[in-house]
Design brief:
Length: 316
């Protein structure tokens, strides 16, 4: 299974087919009030002529939030993005514009700065002819990308390297993507909104992401907090930005994991997902006309501050 943006299911747990799907919101605890975590701790008064006791050691402020560990795999320092759409998709031009914006956006610089990820570039855009099929499997998407990279249909970096390249496949509404097998099969817009992974063989192994245009299951209040539907376009923006920052910080999660929790870490936080976007699931920020995923900040977590960056307009 690839790293996914999952639709959470009420009462049924993760990825349970047949359950009534809705988005469940996790709200981390608020920041402590200023000064609440630290006691000034003045020494008690003493009688004249006695020896004052040694001052108490300064209290240590411990973070309530974990550090997202570096598992040692590669990351993208300056992602080079390629948007892949279909010619008859009415959202194709908007998807390409979103990709171009995200590549050099202040959002990417903000969410990537703790992990060595900076501004990127848009390497190109490819529109596949005709209409997308009604159903595609992840295996078919991977095979098509590998063939197109091998045949030069998809643009690649001038130096021939693929370690900074991310191919983003925008799946139009009406097309369903499936993952898995007969034992468990996940379907887009029912079980997930998007995912990322890696395909091919070194030295031409590359990262890719899939973002599906789904009718949205959520809405946001004026402060960007989920309460019910944001619209398909906004949800696709969230999904694309979610997969971009996760692919940049964890390009090959199954073979060479980078920034993610592993089951052996024993972290209860993995209930929300193991990667930088998952830990801030359903925390979004409006920026330059887009609605974008907030991402886990190791620096903020270490300082005991709210760890999902950038902050929403109300400062949470």
């Amino acid at each position: 299974m690839k790293a996914c943006v999952w639709v959470l299911v009420a009462s049924c747990g993760w990825m349970v087919p047949g359950c009534g799907a809705r988005v469940v919101t996790w709200t981390p605890p608020d920041d402590p009030p200023p000064g609440a975590a630290v006691d000034a701790g003045l020494p008690p008064p003493v009688d004249a002529g006695t020896t004052a006791p040694a001052p108490a050691p300064a209290p240590v402020l411990h973070s309530r939030f974990p550090q997202l560990p570096d598992q040692g795999g590669p990351r993208m320092h300056h992602p080079q993005l390629v948007a892949i759409t279909w010619a008859d998709d009415p959202r194709a031009a908007a998807d390409e514009a979103l990709t171009r914006y995200l590549a050099g956006s202040p959002w990417l610089a903000l969410v990537g700065q703790d992990y060595g990820v900076g501004a990127g570039t848009m390497l190109g855009a490819v529109r596949r002819p005709g209409a997308a099929p009604a159903v595609m499997t992840d295996a078919e998407i991977e095979a098509g990308l590998v063939a197109d990279v091998r045949e030069g249909v998809l643009p690649s970096a001038a130096d021939g390297r693929f370690d900074e390249t991310l191919y983003i496949v925008f799946v139009p509404g009406g097309t369903r993507v499936t993952q898995g097998n007969d034992t468990f099969r996940a379907t887009s817009c029912m079980d997930f909104l998007g995912y990322h992974g890696a395909a091919g063989v070194a030295p031409s192994r590359f990262a890719y992401a899939v973002a599906v245009a789904c009718d949205d299951p959520i809405t946001l209040d004026a402060m960007g907090h989920p309460v019910g539907g944001v619209g398909t376009d906004s949800l696709l923006q969230v999904t694309t930005s979610h997969e971009l920052i996760e692919a940049a910080t964890d390009p090959d999660p199954l073979v060479a994991p980078a920034y993610e929790f592993r089951p052996s870490d024993g972290q209860p936080w993995t209930e929300f997902g193991p990667e930088i976007g998952d830990l801030c699931a359903e925390r979004y920020v409006p920026m330059d006309g887009y609605l974008l995923q907030r991402a886990w900040s190791n620096r903020a977590a270490a300082e005991g501050r709210f760890p999902c960056a950038p902050l929403s307009p109300d400062g949470t």
